[in-house]
Every structure is written in C-alpha cells, then in structure tokens.
Write a structure and sequence with these properties.
- By secondary structure, the protein is mainly beta.
- It contains one helix and 13 strands; from the N terminus they run βββββββαββββββ.
- The chain has an eight-stranded antiparallel β-barrel.
- The protein is globular.
Length: 185
Amino acid sequence: MILKKFALPIFFLSMIGTLSAAQAESWTVDAANSTLGFEVPQGSSPLKGTFTAWDASIEFDVSAPENAVILATINPASASTGNPQFDTTLPAADWFDAAGFPVAEFKAEGASLVEGNSYRAEGTLTIKGASHPVTLDFTLDIDGDTAKATGTAKLNRLDYQLGAGVGTDTVGDIVTVMLDLTATR
C-alpha cells in the first residue's frame, strides 16, 4: 500500500502483524488522519516536525502480539518543520542524505503486551544505511473496524550520522519519533 507519495522504508512506523493466514487481520492506514513526527532539542526549545511522505500497513491481532511484524517506511526528504532553513537542510548529505538514501525503515518482528492496551516492539531502524536497535512503545485501541495507535521511539541521531558535525549543545543527540496512526480493517 502506498500512502501519500512514496512507499519507502524508514523510521518510524507502520504496523504489519504477521499471523497465520487464517488469523491475520489486515488494516489499512488512514493517511489523512495519521501522522509521523519527530522532536529534538535545539537551543532552548525543541525542534518539531513531521514526515509528509511515509507508508504504513498493519496486520495485527491483539490476542497474538508476539506474531506481529511492524514495518514503517519513510521518505526522509519529506521532513517538514515549517522553518525553510531547517526544511532545506534536513534532506542534505550532512543530515538525511535523501539523495543517496531515499528510504529509511523501521522493522520489528513481534510485540509484547506491557499492560492494558500498551505494547512494546523491539525493532531495527535503518537510516543512511546504518541499522541500530530501537524500541517502539505504543498504545493500541480498537473500536469495531477502526484502530488507533499512538507511540514513541527514541534514537540517537549520531548513531546514524545525522548532523554529525553539529554539536549536541546546538542540536540534541536524542530524537523522539512520535506516531499517531488510524487504520481500518
């Protein structure tokens, strides 16, 4: 399924739960009602933004979260903060190098129930060809044929050489990725 403009593997975040064919529940992400955002300390206030081109699909069964596969694909060139200076800098080679690496991906096989409607998925995030473990904590609420997932994952931008020449006193090293996803089956 292609949402928005690209079907690209990145960070942050789509859910595909793999269950046996007889058990799988397929979900379609409602792109108009879903967002994938990020926040990083920058100076005295946080820099916030979203990715406008990303792809997500979900197959997930709350009775068997351990069988889930979570996959998110993102076009890093679509990072948007509302600040033209940052928006032209982020796709450049020092940051996402979107020309050389047009796709980023988060993938996790299996999730675990933490409590209530809270889940955790241990996955791998690949940006600029570098892959590192990342934990996605999320809540999942299902009402009839509509699912709502919200979650966060934290990563160290320096692990991916994102702004490697920029000191952590200028732009923090820890980036929080935020998922707010609506899907229907």
